[in-house]
Amino acid sequence: MRAGAPLWPVAVGIAWRQPHYQEAMVRGAAGIDFLEVVTEDFLAPGGAARQLLLEAARRFPLSLHGVGLGLGSAIGIDGAHLRQVRKLVDAVQPGQVSEYACFNRVHRPGAPIHLHARLPIPFSERSLSLLADHVDAAQEALGRQILMEPIATCLAWDEDALSEPAFFNALARRTGCGILVNLGSLIVNALNRGQRDEACVQAGLAWLDEIDPAVVGQYHLAGHSQVQEVAFGGQGDPVGEDVWSLYRHALGRIGARPTVVDRGRSPPSLATLTEEVARARREQQAFDREVIAPPPPRQDRRGRDSFPIQFQESDDDAA
């Protein structure tokens, strides 16, 4: 797999965070297909962080995962932030670019406030129209498709009128964006709705059965923790058996997609991450590669047959 190339469906990577920057650059990332980084960690031009990423982009395939655009914010998009993202995308040519489907900017007299938090959007027609407009604008500015990730949350809105998968199916149809499915978030959300144990897994399976396979562009495998009956993701917890069950179901129903093992900002050793990458590959191997690897065709919003989620075969597949 070449640096700067699109990611093939069976690629498995890691969320590359600061504790492993030096190790990966000095020793390499054997057994890992690509590195995903947080976009906002590298936005500032010049300096050591940007130079690190430019060097990594010459050596590894990359994926950029944004946490700050807040495309669900009613106040609109921060144009300066979006321009910085475009410059970074142009500089490193990542295989995929993703953003959270959330809001994080609100109005106040004088200037907007950036809340530095991922807050849930309503699953309503009004919210869908607003988010679709902002996704269109972001994709136009970046000159490429982006993947939108539903967030883990402990809140819901009274105005919710659509199920979460139906909402994101509609968003993808309207904008041509793809969907990043964090399987750990499906468990977190089920726990925060009061479901437990097998009921959480069944809720996740139902979610995966409702999402349109053609719009799914990436999976995240993540763990969770609970504090006083509230579940959270992104705390560095290992990927649980409940999430592995959802991954197997996703592979069988949706197919393989580039997969990221995400242990958050406090990850374990790189060796441990590599072990979880290897397990993801073993889960894939339980299926016929010809069945899970090809992405399904989809109609883009202009009515043409297209493959807006770009994949590339591995050298082994092409042989």
TrEMBL record:
Residues 282-291 have a biased composition (Basic and acidic residues). Residues 282-319 are annotated as: Disordered. It comes from the Bacteria. Pfam families: MbnB_TglH_ChrH (PF05114). It comes from Roseateles chitinivorans. This is DUF692 domain-containing protein. InterPro entries: MbnB/TglH/ChrH. Gene3D superfamilies: Divalent-metal-dependent TIM barrel enzymes (3.20.20.150).
